[in-house]
Amino acid sequence: MHDRSDSTDKRGARRPVYLVDGARTPFIAARGEPGPFSPVDLAVQCGRPLLLRQPFGAEAIDLVILGCVNVPAEEMNPARIAALRLGLGADTPAFTVQINCGSGMQSIDTAFKYVRDGTAELVLAGGTEALSHAPLLVRQSAVRWLASLRKARSLRERAKTLAGFRPGYLEPVVGLARGLTDPVVDLNMGQTAEKLAFELGVPREEADRYAVASHIRLKRAQDEGWLHGEVMPAFARDGKVYEADDGVRPDTSVAKLATLKPAFERPYGQVTPGNSSQITDGASWVLVASEAALERHGLEPLAVIRDSSWSALDPSIMGLAPVLCATALMRRHELAMDAVDLWEINEAFAAQVLACLAVWDSEELSRELLGLEAPLGAPAQDRLNVDGGAISLGHPVGASGNRIVLHLARALQRLGGHRGIASECIGGGQGGAMLIERT
Amino acid sequence: MTSTILQRVEDHRERRERRAEGSVTGVENWRLATDGDGFAWLVFDQARSSVNTISSTTLGELDRLLDEIEAEPPRALVIRSSKAHGFCAGGDIEAFAAIEDPQELADLLKRGHAVLDRLEGLALPTVAVIHGHCLGGGLELALACDQRIGLAGLQTGFPEVKIGLHPGLGGTFRATRTLDPVAAMTAMLTGKTIYGEKNRAIGLVADLVEPRHMHAAVAAAVGGQLSAKGHPWKRWALGLDPVRRLAAGRMRAMTRAKAPPEHYPAPYALIDLWQHQGQDTEQMRENESASFGKLLSTDTARNLIRVFSLRQKMKALGDEASGIRHVHVIGAGEMGADIAGWCALQGLRTSLSDMSPDPLGAAVRSTERLCRSEHRSSIETRDALDRLVPDLDNAGIAWADLIIEAVPESIEIKQKVYETVGKRMREDAILASNTSSIPLEALREHVTRPAQFAGLHFFNPVAKMLVVEVVRHDGTDATTVDALRAFCNRIGKLPVPVASYPGFLVNRALMPYLLEALVLLGEGVKQETVDQAALDFGMPMGPIELADQVGLDICLDVGRMLTASVAKPMPELPDWLERKVERGELGRKSGQGFYRWRQGKPQKEKGVPTPAGDITDRLMLPLLDACVECRREGVVDDPDLIDGALIFATGFAPFRGGPIHYARARGIEAIVGRLEGLAKAHGNRFEPDPGWAKL
Predict the structure, then answer these.
(1) Looking at the annotation, which residues of A are catalytic?
(2) A368 lies in a domain?
(3) Cα-based distances in Å from B15 to A42, A413, B40, B360
(4) Which pTM was predicted?
(5) ipTM above 0.95?
(6) Distance of residue A55 Cα from the nearest chain B Cα, in angstroms
(7) Strand pairing of B126-130 and B76-81?
């Protein structure tokens, strides 16, 4: 696998790029019906308090970039709608980026490059997703039937077409299930995790244990107030207030998780709802700024963005991609594993995260996949996803990549670490990673 | 910042259009241009005014222009307005009202009718393009054209009834002849605005289009491809005398429920005109003019016109730009939430803070309901809700041009809030308290910049009550008061600048009225009888029902505060009121107060004795006396403002022109004498205020 990032490119001036602040909504678990917020609603909910606490006005923002995977028909280019609804001027450009589960990080990476190259000073970069709003679709066969009915001219033709109706046409396609299935290898995302667990030898019990830890860590972070200022309450029209990630189950245990049936490959599979990320709605924003913007507005940065990397591999083992892009970053910056103080690796599936760790621990795979003489060794558990992850708080696909960068920056501040890498696997067989340092 | 490019593009187009229009010598309120199709475009653009009005001048000029048009007839005549505000705001009411001589008025009406008749009689097609506000006389002008094209956002109406009149330039017969007759009568009887598409449905416009399609729509109208909805069956049925008699009877009954004929004669006169209309236009015109003249001479019309002028005067108090773009409201209780919701609805960026999230959530919900009750579209609702930012961290303080404190009525709590605000507010921002019972002097010492501190007293329910008292203490800067007045105007409220005083103006004046009602109850008078006395006077609601509406707990609080802090003796607060409050009988909000409340309506006993003796004066005169006291104490200097405040804040019988106006009309000496008599009979609380002598 090649690292296709252009970060080693030496053209043009390179300006330092800072992550100034950020905020997200609580991640709201989908409850089998559309949640109270659309993707843009979510982006507005956390964008408003974020902007309100800045010393600069909305007019200081040059550009808005928003990641979003499932864009509803009412909200084409959600970035632009969110920008206008947030009160940014009509003259502020805004575009949406989409690379599945990496979209929220793609927005930061794009902002990073705009600022680094001097084309923007201050960029609002986010990610949003309302998975509970994923539509029910009409089958393509039904669409074709309707079209031929409309084209039928004579009564006879119409009768003939009508007779061609099949009851199956009425069966809707669940957009979400379709979206979470890789169309190239025809595997559901959960199935790719099953495959990884098998290939890398991750036992179910270990995955369940990992999942329990995720819940306990998130609960502790909530109770200790570590998410204060990062998670902003969201206010629904019916007056209901969403204050915290509501998918957390601190009372879960390995024994309880052991009772769950596999979700994707019954009856023998091991990936269950308990050791997978949750289907949720949520949004997250960060502010990306140049040095000039820091000075002009008197901003204290959270972190400096050093570099980013994107990788790709066989879609059926998409969950392994973080190893590739994160290793590329470490090699480029000549970092040993203990030089990275904190890690966020998006918890798409517990087995998938553990499979990544297994590669770093394996001498053979490190050599063959990563071209390393000696394995880097997996990050220590107390450096990885220290405040939980998508298993406990959910995975609104367009938002997660943004959240992990924001949370990494804040966790570095809190814990006094210097350097961190955030990385996620991306449906379709890709991965993204970002290297940041505390300032 | 936003849409500056759009603005420039639109301005450019307007300038281009303007260059094509020519002026006519001696005419300054209209412009005339003929386009390539041979259509004459007559553009109404009243000089030195932001709106167009119908007056002897503007109609006189129209008459001269009709000469030109008749001399060289175009293919068609199109009338439109170039004012952003709309086609025409209506007749020049104040000029009409100034006419004392009935003959002069009759002549004026006759000349006006002649111009409109001439327009109607032109041998070429005539089209009025109407947009924005097209009201009263302006609508009558449009109705004299063959066809009307509406532009998006159109609001039409006959507001004459609100000033005790009915249309006087042919509207009474042209509207009923041209539109759906029932809709036309409803519009004239209620004075309600007819919005957008409704104008097409009732046949007022042949089409309703975006401004960019104006020319094409006019061409279609002239070419005979458009016609307004005719409602032929309704017109046929109501052309039959018995049907019309029946309909007129129903209209009278429905009107009576809202406006008794002894106080409000205009709607009844209008129904009479319609019921007895003949086929003879000449006769109808004469009847209309006679009726109009008669109404204009009534006290009701004179006083309602006065109320209209008071409103203009109060609006003008806040005419400048307020410079207030971001409002931060602290405290999401009922008042705070409603104030914030209203500001957001009115287009201001509003942050609302509270200690806990739940009241903020409730504020979002109530604002969503407010949008619905104000008939906002789903996009407008979304935008209003986007502007209302729940703010648990008080981050909005740093952005606010105006900070409104609406926390519970406790000096300690307010003091804490002011400390936080003082540290974070911008140097040029204003801090206002919504307090109704704590003297500003007691709060001022806890404020960082007293010159930028004032009271901003909203009434409950915020969405419905037009008045906001802008309260200054002796150290409030004049610029602060000016900005707050302008702010009130910006959010569609009428400012009443007052000096700090117990109860300010409105509560000070209302409280003796409410308390006297309680005394009457103590004397054994039925509560329905007490309320009826106030209704007969012309109040929109009796004092007992009002107390229930406001909440007996709040009445008790304000009553205690006033009794303790006003020099004048007040009716004693009865012990049983306190017990009632302790029992949780708080009025409407608890379902039981003096009345039992069902679905927001008080359950009143029928067949109670009608008010007799001095009940009405015992209720109303203390209210007048308190107004006089407020003037003497310098709470409000201008008696007009007292009248306006009491009319728009309490619904004080509008047809009586306000408490001071009423007192003057009845005679100051008579009132003072009456108060002295009441003092002898019922106690020194009726002693007339020394301020009466200076009125």
Answers:
(1) 101, 425
(2) yes
(3) 43, 58, 19, 47
(4) 0.92
(5) no
(6) 8
(7) parallel
